[in-house]
């Protein structure tokens, strides 16, 4: 085994420490285990990540092959991110001691075993039974780890825990339909798990809590850097400010054009125009039968793929598939609106994504003739499905499994504009772009709130909206901005803020990724202008982006530079 192969092997062992990672990646080990929530395991993982980082940093300069050196750098970055996350502290304690996350850790692996695992149902249910049997002991250990948790995070945990019995009940219903041989054992394990959840929730409510959860600017910059983003917090904030100014101008220009096009009152507000378009281009549902909506999504996916195939703009591999379906009734409690399950990165065979749509009369404004095409662009081909299915075919273990949020979200948000630019929506381009610009407005607010929550510095909320942020509660200030940017109801805004507060560095990745991908897409033609036509430039850009696999966009830029030099 070469030093490079040994490094990759150690990297896979690090990923495999977490049983939920094993389920998500499509591995066959630890499927019947819950993660270990103890501080001892946290320290063990951090130590292993630190050792791997040092090995990768030492080996990378010695590797002469460009892509092996890139993989070593990616391993170092992934290990660094894990090491930082496990050692992250504030209020004088580790984040893990202040973040109750048992609900998510218990449910995520079980959910994936139900929804996105091609093995026979009996095998998956055996794994789920084993996991459920471990819930009482897991909760005891999870509770012992906590020390003065963040009050908001306690509320989030209690809400998640409250929904777990429903998840377990739907799993039991599925097991019943599958005639699972250990059905009664499963039922008893669920009963024991539910009792343990009640005890855990009651104990959690009794713990002293804190309201502070910011980590300060220095650690915030470290989190951003560990995600492979080389920008400063100030540069990221400026990107958001510029984006808000530009997008609000675009929306007003489109509003004026569309009001004139449809002969509407010139003073019609943006929200009123949106309601008009939703009504005009809504998908009809007769007698509560949503099959026509599902079929509309399938037809649109086919239309988009045909549109792209004729232009040969994206490499679309054969061994991939995307299944679009209405959420089965037993799964509906687990998927309140919709979900996209990407291909498991290390599972062989056809790389299949699953798109579940939970449909109801109240949600139909989300499913219009303007929204459906762009949703399929984002989630399907050429969006997340094509990107992640192609990455899952990578020979490189690292670039199949690496998690780069700004690479993924930057790609899909770029495509929403790009596909309109090349004529996907024809005469409805302005209408679709108006809806898209309204929807994407949230990503500017996400940057501001992410920076604010991480640093605790309120000035990051100033991105161009005429608002005063004077409340002592950061969630009140953040909600004020998010509602102004998106029109969300207060309840919807608070739900969004829950994950913003916990997933440090992820909310800002949408806009940062969009900015970095568009910059790269504009720089590439200038570098190859003498050797390629405009269509060839787009074809090659998309090919390199997709076939290079997952990595931060800053490192992807070096791949483009390498490929340009190699072509000379």
What's the helix-strand series? Answer: HHHHEEHHHHHHHHHHEEEHHHHHHHHHHH
Oligomeric assembly:
single chain
Largest sheet: spatial strand order: 3-5-4
Share of helical residues: 55-70%
Summarize the main sheet. 3 strands, mixed
Query: Which class best fits the helix and strand makeup?
Result: mainly alpha
* DSSP summary: helix tally: 25
In percent, how much strand structure appears in the residues?
under 5%
Instruction: Measure the end-to-end span.
Output: 34 Å
| Poorly predicted runs | none
Radius of gyration: 24 Å
Beta strands, count: 5
What's the pLDDT, averaged over the residues? 94
Shape: globular
Short descriptors:
568 residues; mainly alpha; three-stranded mixed sheet; two-stranded antiparallel ribbon; 4% strand; globular
Quick rundown:
Helix content is 65%, strand content 4%.
Give structural notes.
The protein has 25 helices and 5 strands. The chain is mainly alpha-helical. The chain has a 3-stranded mixed sheet. A hairpin with a 2-residue loop joins strand 1 (about 90) and strand 2. The longest helix has 29 residues, at about 235-260.
SSE topology:
Blueprint: H1 3-15, H2 19-25, H3 39-59, H4 66-87, E1 89-90, E2 93-94, H5 95-98, H6 102-115, H7 121-133, H8 135-145, H9 151-177, H10 183-206, H11 217-226, H12 233-261, H13 270-280, H14 291-311, E3 320-326, E4 338-341, E5 351-357, H15 371-379, H16 384-391, H17 397-401, H18 405-421, H19 429-440, H20 442-455, H21 474-486, H22 490-502, H23 509-528, H24 534-547, H25 553-567
Helix pairs in contact: 1-3, 1-4, 2-6, 3-4, 6-7, 6-9, 8-10, 9-10, 12-19, 12-20, 14-15, 15-18, 18-19, 18-23, 20-21, 20-23, 21-22, 23-24, 23-25
């Amino acid at each position: 085994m070469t030093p490079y192969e040994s490094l990759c092997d150690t990297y896979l062992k690090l990923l495999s420490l977490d049983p939920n990672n094993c389920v998500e990646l499509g591995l066959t080990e630890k499927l019947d285990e819950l993660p270990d929530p103890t501080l001892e395991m946290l320290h063990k993982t951090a130590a292993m990540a630190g050792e791997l980082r040092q090995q990768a940093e030492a080996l990378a300069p010695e590797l002469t092959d460009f892509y092996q050196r890139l993989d070593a750098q990616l391993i170092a970055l992934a290990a660094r991110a894990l090491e930082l996350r496990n050692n992250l502290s504030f209020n004088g304690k580790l984040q893990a001691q202040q973040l109750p996350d048992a609900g998510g850790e218990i449910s995520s692996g079980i959910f994936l075993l139900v929804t996105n695992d091609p093995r026979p149902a009996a095998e998956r249910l055996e794994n789920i039974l084993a996991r459920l049997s471990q819930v009482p002991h897991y909760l005891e250990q999870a509770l012992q780890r906590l020390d003065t948790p963040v009050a908001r995070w306690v509320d989030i945990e209690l809400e998640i825990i409250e929904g777990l019995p429903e998840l377990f009940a739907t799993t039991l219903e599925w097991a019943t339909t599958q005639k699972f041989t250990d059905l009664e054992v499963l039922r008893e394990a669920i009963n024991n798990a539910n009792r343990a959840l009640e005890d855990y929730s009651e104990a959690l409510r009794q713990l002293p809590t804190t309201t502070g959860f910011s980590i300060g600017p220095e650690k915030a910059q470290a989190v951003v850097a560990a995600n492979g983003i080389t920008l400063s917090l100030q540069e990221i904030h400026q990107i958001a400010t510029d984006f808000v100014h530009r997008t609000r101008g675009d929306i007003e220009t489109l509003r004026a054009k569309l009001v004139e096009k449809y002969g509407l009152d010139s003073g019609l507000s943006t929200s009123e125009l949106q309601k008009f378009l939703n009504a005009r281009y809504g998908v009809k549902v007769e007698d509560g039968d949503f099959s026509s909506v599902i079929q509309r999504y399938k037809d649109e996916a086919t239309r988009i793929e045909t549109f792209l195939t004729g232009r040969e703009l994206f490499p679309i591999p054969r061994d991939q598939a995307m299944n679009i379906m209405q959420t089965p009734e037993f799964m509906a409690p687990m998927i309140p609106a919709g979900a996209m399950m990407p291909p498991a990165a290390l599972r062989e065979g056809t790389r299949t994504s699953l798109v579940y749509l939970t449909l109801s009369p109240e949600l139909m404004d989300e499913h219009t003739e303007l929204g459906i095409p762009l949703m399929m662009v984002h989630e399907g081909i050429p969006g997340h499905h094509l990107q992640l299915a192609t990455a899952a075919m990578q020979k490189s273990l690292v670039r199949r499994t690496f998690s780069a949020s700004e690479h993924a979200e930057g790609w899909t948000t770029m495509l929403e504009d790009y596909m309109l630019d090349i004529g996907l929506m024809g005469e409805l381009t302005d209408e679709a772009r108006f809806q898209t610009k309204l929807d994407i407005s949230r990503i500017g607010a996400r940057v501001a709130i992410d920076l604010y929550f991480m640093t605790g510095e309120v000035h990051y909320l100033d991105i161009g909206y005429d608002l005063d942020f004077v409340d002592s509660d950061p969630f009140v200030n953040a909600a004020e901005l998010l509602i102004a940017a998106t029109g969300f109801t207060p309840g919807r805004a608070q739900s969004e803020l829950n994950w913003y507060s916990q997933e440090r560095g992820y909310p800002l990745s949408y806009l940062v990724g969009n900015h970095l991908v568009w910059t790269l897409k504009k720089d590439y033609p200038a570098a190859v202008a003498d050797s390629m036509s405009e269509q060839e430039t787009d074809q090659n850009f998309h090919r390199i982006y997709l076939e290079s696999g997952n990595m931060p966009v800053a490192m992807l830029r070096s791949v483009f530079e390498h490929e340009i030099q190699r072509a000379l």
